[in-house]
Amino acid sequence: MLEGWLAILSVIGVVSFGVYYNSWLQRTRGCSALTFWRVIGGVADLLLWLAVLDVGSAVHGVILFLIAGGIFLLLFLENYRDSKSLLHGFLMTLWLILIGGAITWVLIALSNRSKKH
């Protein structure tokens, strides 16, 4: 994960893009990527993809890969159903994974800060 100012700027960029993109989706397509369960799915998907990269055995790697791929596919299909566009369904899914990274980074930063005090 990113650290320092680069991480802060990345979080600001992802959230800013998401606010603009989500409001644009609501105006033009009548749908929203920002729902509780979709954000939870984005966080879970990001954590599973990160776990796939650091797995110890091939069997566990395949299992985690299939679960992460399944969550990604479910998020994409739900976003595609709402937006009725492959491009916007894919962009909404990627944004959910990025917002999952931003939320994870904030939680890690808060956890590290509380450990220092």
Could you describe the 3D structure shown?
This protein is mostly helical. It has one domain. 85% of the residues lie in helices and 0% in strands. It has helices spanning 4-28, 36-53, 58-83, 86-116. α1 (4-28) packs antiparallel against α4 (86-116) and α2 packs antiparallel against α3. The longest helix has 31 residues, at 86-116. It starts with a helix and ends with a helix.
Question: Total strand count, please?
Answer: 0
Beta fraction of the residues?
Answer: under 5%
Average pLDDT reading: 84
| Secondary structural class | mainly alpha
| Principal-axes shape call | flat
In DSSP terms (H or I, runs of 4 or more residues), the helix count works out at 4
- Ranges where pLDDT stays below 50 over 5 or more residues in a row are none
| Alpha-carbon distance between the two ends | 22 Å
Task: Summarize the helix and strand pattern as letters.
Answer: HHHH
